[in-house]
Amino acid sequence: MAVFQGTNFNKKRSRCIARWIICLLPFLILSSMIYEFINRDLFDDYEERRVWCVVRYSKSIELYTNIVQYFHFIAPFLANLISAIFIIVYITRLKTTVQSQFSSQQQLLNQINQHKQLVISPIILA
Questions:
Q1: What tens digit of pLDDT does each residue of 44-58 get?
Q2: pLDDT tens for each residue of 94-113
Q3: Which parts of the chain span the membrane according to its record (predicted)?
């Protein structure tokens, strides 16, 4: 955000927004997974002296589970990757206007080389 807004970036407001997001995110994630707690049953096995946790899903809840799990995996990955690409492209545009002796393609390759860890790290974590 600071790259895009430049001198108009408000650090205090950004911290406030980040705090709200950090506080709300666990509740949003837990609320999307609340069905897990509802569909679990505990059974006592007296012969083997164990407690079994059994999950029974209907087809619709199974589909919802798959969608939520894919979303929880793909959304952070895409957010990291898109923000990294945005940073690289935006800095390339700024440097191309300032340093006209280099072409935009050369600037892009230079920025990719300088910020390759921003692109590589989300891919490795996936």
A1: 888 888 999 888 888
A2: 888 887 787 888 888 888 88
A3: 20-38, 70-91
Domain membership flag for residue 74:
yes
Lowest mean pLDDT among 6-15, 28-37, 57-66, 77-86: 6-15
User: Domain count of the chain?
Assistant: 1
- Is residue 29 in a domain? no
Cα–Cα distance for residue pair 121/125, rounded to 1 Å? 6
Give, to the nearest 10 degrees, the angle between helix 59-98 and helix 104-114: 120
Is 26 inside any structural domain? no
User: Does residue 63 sit in helix, strand or coil?
Assistant: helix
The answer to whether 91 and 3 have CB atoms below 8 angstroms apart is yes
What is the span of the domain harbouring residue 107? Answer: 58-125
Cα gap 16→35, rounded to integer Å: 31
